[in-house]
């Protein structure tokens, strides 16, 4: 089934140094971390062997097939393909190079191979598809030498016959297009018997080249949404792979990337969003009434914005209902000596900057409610340490910095234990204890205790 093609004379071979390809571990797979050009030079100059592309579908197949997993483990190189693999890498904090999807990468590799005088054999696809793909490649790459073609049906029925035909062709590169995982299993089984030095599993490449399947528009490809185009073109065949398959892949990626402690963080964030979103909707009438009361009591905006220090020392703008006069910040320095609280944090029971409405808001912690918006933004949590001022953090002893290991909260151990009646050192002890032992159950207990603390008003001034 070898077919002859007419080509222009081969271009003179060019020399190049063989770069060493680095890998990044993603979901336990050593994926190439390099640019497209670096990868091409390494594959064409290196030791050869089977090379496979790895995308989200491949990861799902690997979980279902031990034989396929073993084939991936024996590959010369695994190339990252698609937005799913990029997302998995980000979850794990791994850094990849270029997106090396086969449909774009292989023609570039063959162009470089043609400049070196190397030839290629196309094996796979329905009868006639490999030949049509070869003609398309000849139009794209003038100097490319096609050593032969063979279909993936009758032509693949006998491994020995297929291997003999491929080896007789004298090809330097073999492209196998049988789909995942069949092509990888075929190469893993027969690689040692194949004469072509470089062997690649290329999936649907022949169908794209032959025009059997239309590629997504360039804009969709650049947006890394080619999978959505293929789903739209072949919804029946691709629904399982791209709908349920993508969900399964993301679940596998998250399971691999996140520790039990990370999952606790996911649960905490879900609790924050649920409670904060519900509270914002249910308390809207109270918000409106509070805004009106503040406006009637004193001049100035209803909301007060102030930079506070969040998790890992990152500053953010905290929201509160304004409970002080407009010149409150200017008066703060003069009032530091009147603080009723020992340590770094300033609190004064008879602070003259507080308005009449402000005292009521503070008594029942209503002034803190706009921080629900900070929670929804992800800057704060429902439960956590009190958010500190930058000037306070600058004066922290080293031990107190441990309280910045978690997001600040609307409520917490300090808030339910007496608030301003608790000294700074004791507050730090409480916050460090919370950071070390936080859990969803503890958060729920502290939220329940918050209602008692608000009603009692202890330490609220």
From TrEMBL:
CDD domains: Glyco_transf_WecG_TagA. Pfam families: Bac_transf, Glyco_tran_WecG. The keyword Plastid does not apply. Keywords: Exopolysaccharide synthesis. Residues 268-455 form the Bacterial sugar transferase domain. PANTHER family: COLANIC BIOSYNTHESIS UDP-GLUCOSE LIPID CARRIER TRANSFERASE, SLL5057 PROTEIN. Belongs to the bacterial sugar transferase family. This is WecB/TagA/CpsF family glycosyltransferase. It comes from Litorisediminicola beolgyonensis.
